[in-house]
Structure formats: C-alpha cells, structure tokens
C-alpha cells in the first residue's frame, strides 16, 4: 500500500455538478433524500502515484433509529479493485474507510458477494443470515445455459411442472383479488410511510415517503430494464392494508454455465398495517402475480422467518443462495449503548434489498 493513497469526494462537490455532468451513480447519490448530511463522503477511491485510480467505493448517508433515537449511518455500493492490484489490501482499506465514514460510526449493507464477505468478516462486523429462495417461472434461458436444445424440449415441460407447484399461490392470489385491490404506484404516499412507522422493531432504517420515491426514480445500475416497482393492497372500501416493493434486474453470467439475460424480480420491501388480516404469504402471492406480468424468469424472496421460508417450498420455491446482512458499529458508536443492537430479532430486516442496503 506504500504506492497507494486513499482519497475521498464529498457531497458538496457532487451537488455542485449539473446533472448533465454526473454519471448515473452520481445522479442517484445526489438525489438521496439524506444527501444534505455533509459529513458522509460520497466516494472513497484508491490512486497510485501516477494518479491512476485502482479502486473505489461509493457511499451514501442513511438514518438509523435505535429505541426511537436517530443516528447517522451509511450504506455503500460497488466496491471495486482493479484485477492487477488485487491482493494488496486495497479492498480492505476502502472497506475500513467506508465502515467509519459516518459521524456515528455505523455502517450497514446487504447482498455481499462471496469475495467481500470474508473481508468484512475479518474486520469484525456483525452478520445476520437468511436464505434467498427463487421460483423459476420460465426455464428456457436457464436450460439454454447448459445445453441449447434442452430449452426447446424440456423448457415447456418444466414450466408446466413449476406452474403446478405454484398453484397454491395462484389460488391464494385469486381469492385475495375478490377482497382487495392491488395497485401500482408511480409515487409513494404518506400512508406507506405510516405503515413502516407502525413496525415495533427497536432498530431499523428510517424509511420516509421521500426515501421510497428515491428508490422508484433512481438506482445504481445502468440497464434500462433495471427498475423498482411499488404497489399497495387496499380493501374494497379503499383503505390501505399493505404495500410491497420489488426490483427488476437483468442478470448475466449468473452461474458458471454463462446463463445470460435472465430477468430476476426480487421482493425488497413490504409492510402490513396493524390489525390487518393479511399475512406475508398474501404479500408473496400478490407479488408473484405482478412479477409474472413483467415477464420474470425467476421470482425471488428472502424472509428471516425460517419456518415461513420452508413453507414456500410447497409452492415451488427452491434455495438459491445465502442472503447476508452486515452491520458495523465502531467502538465509539452510540449504537453500542443500546442493549441488543447486534441481535437479529431486534431489527426490521429486508435481506433481498441488496442494491441499497438495509431496510
């Protein structure tokens, strides 16, 4: 690391740029509803003596509530180190800078890659674990990654078989549509923010109406199909009962078989109004129907309740991979003054929320 220097950009510089001078990531960072918090850098980057950039990580501020007290934390996106410079500790230095970037020394994230997971583990972070489970809706692109002709012969058969397994979800969805109205929103409402506030978890990320609108309008990815969608579930009288949000992502090289252009739609946020008779299984049923309308190849969910996750197997869901949430609180962090801060049961968690961090 003698020849490498870690530098940073801050939000004041970023916010002075006109949008036509910003790239997609910078525009997303610039419009974060908490970008007014100037104490958190927008990026750390590693440079060699000749000013060549060999590594970087984007950072954005968030607010975490602990027993109703608010603290400044951060999330991050896109930890990158050039292939030529890997193994020299650059990723570790960038991660340490990120972990300590907020005034309250709190950093959180989700969707860690297999490369970054051991790094954060060595740095003493706290982890919460779940499983990602997927329902294969259309198998053609997946089978094509193994043997081309398989997708033609076996694809329709496998799709029919998977639809039979998912029949319970279809049936539940049809019953729900007789009692409720599921509607897509172009803009978040105060009702959704109120449902989040009703959650009694001691620790959670502060999600406001502005936060949801940020997720709807911006993301760190570049594919034109990479979008987020927000829905409400209302009773026939028009009163909101629940909401859910999902992300649509086009994935390439998702296995060693080079399976490309697969549409994966993941449930990333949801909430049910207190005293509603709706359940998380109802949320999954409504979500799966809307995801099918958007031509999903795979529908993905992740819940921390292990018994509930096992029950989804009866509807055709299979284990996909681990979902890891990472939490760091520095030695001087005020978060450590709250008992149980490092216990999964005390947090409001949404493990599939990997593009933006923690929920």
End-to-end span in angstroms?
35 Å
Please bin the fraction of helical residues. Answer: 25-40%
Q: Work out the radius of gyration.
A: 21 Å
**Helical/strand content category:** alpha+beta
Number of strands: 13
Approximate shape:
globular
- Return the average pLDDT rounded to an integer: 85
Total helical segments: 12
The description of the largest β-sheet is: 8 strands, mixed
Strand order of the biggest β-sheet: 5-13-6-12-11-10-9-7
Poorly predicted ranges (pLDDT <50, ≥5 residues)? Answer: 355-359
What topology does this entry show?
Blueprint: E1 5-9, H1 11-16, H2 24-30, E2 43-47, E3 53-66, E4 69-81, H3 90-99, E5 106-110, H4 116-122, E6 126-136, H5 140-144, H6 148-153, H7 155-165, H8 167-179, E7 180-185, H9 190-198, E8 203-205, H10 209-217, E9 227-235, E10 240-251, E11 262-272, H11 280-293, E12 298-301, H12 306-311, E13 318-329
Parallel strand pairs: 11-12
Antiparallel strand pairs: 1-2, 2-3, 3-4, 3-8, 5-13, 6-12, 6-13, 7-9, 9-10, 10-11
Helix pairs in contact: 8-11
Could you explain the architecture of this structure?
The chain has helices spanning 11-16, 24-30, 90-99, 116-122, 140-144, 148-153, 155-165, 167-179, 190-198, 209-217, 280-293, 306-311, and strands at 5-9, 43-47, 53-66, 69-81, 106-110, 126-136, 180-185, 203-205, 227-235, 240-251, 262-272, 298-301, 318-329. It has 359 residues and is an alpha+beta fold. The chain has an eight-stranded mixed sheet with strand order 5-13-6-12-11-10-9-7, sandwiched between helices. Helix 8 (167-179) crosses helix 11 (280-293). The radius of gyration is 21 Å and the shape is globular.
């Amino acid at each position: 690391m003698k020849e490498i220097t870690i530098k940073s950009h801050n939000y004041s510089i970023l916010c002075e740029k006109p949008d036509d001078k910003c790239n997609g990531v910078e525009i997303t960072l610039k419009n974060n509803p908490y970008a007014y918090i100037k104490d958190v850098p927008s990026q750390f980057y590693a440079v060699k003596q000749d000013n060549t950039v060999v590594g970087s990580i984007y950072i954005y501020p968030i607010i975490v509530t602990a027993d109703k007290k608010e603290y400044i934390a951060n999330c991050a996106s896109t930890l990158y180190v050039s292939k030529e410079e890997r193994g020299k500790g650059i990723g570790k230095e960038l991660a340490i800078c990120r972990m300590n970037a907020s005034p309250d020394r709190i950093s959180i994230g989700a969707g860690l890659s297999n490369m970054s997971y051991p790094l954060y583990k060595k740095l003493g972070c706290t982890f919460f674990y779940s499983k990602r489970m997927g329902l294969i809706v259309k198998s053609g692109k997946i089978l094509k990654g193994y043997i081309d002709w398989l997708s033609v012969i076996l694809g329709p058969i496998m799709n029919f078989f998977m639809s039979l397994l998912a029949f319970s979800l279809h049936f539940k969805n049809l019953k729900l549509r007789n009692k409720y109205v599921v509607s897509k929103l172009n803009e978040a409402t105060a009702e959704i923010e109120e449902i989040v506030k009703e959650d009694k978890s001691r620790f959670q990320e502060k999600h406001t109406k502005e936060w949801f609108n940020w997720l709807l309008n911006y993301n760190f990815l570049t594919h034109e199909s990479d979008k987020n969608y927000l829905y409400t579930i209302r009773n026939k009288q028009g009163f909101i009962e629940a909401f859910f949000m999902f992300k649509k992502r086009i994935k390439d090289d998702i296995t060693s078989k080079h399976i490309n252009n697969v549409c994966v739609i993941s449930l990333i946020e949801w909430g049910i109004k207190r005293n509603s008779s709706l359940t998380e299984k109802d949320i999954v049923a409504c979500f799966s129907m809307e995801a099918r309308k958007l031509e999903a190849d795979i529908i993905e969910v992740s819940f921390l309740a292990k018994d509930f996750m096992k029950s989804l197997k009866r509807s055709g869901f299979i284990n996909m991979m681990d979902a890891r949430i990472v939490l760091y609180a520095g030695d001087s962090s005020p978060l450590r003054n709250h008992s149980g801060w490092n216990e999964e049961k005390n947090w409001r968690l949404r493990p599939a929320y990997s593009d933006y961090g923690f929920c």
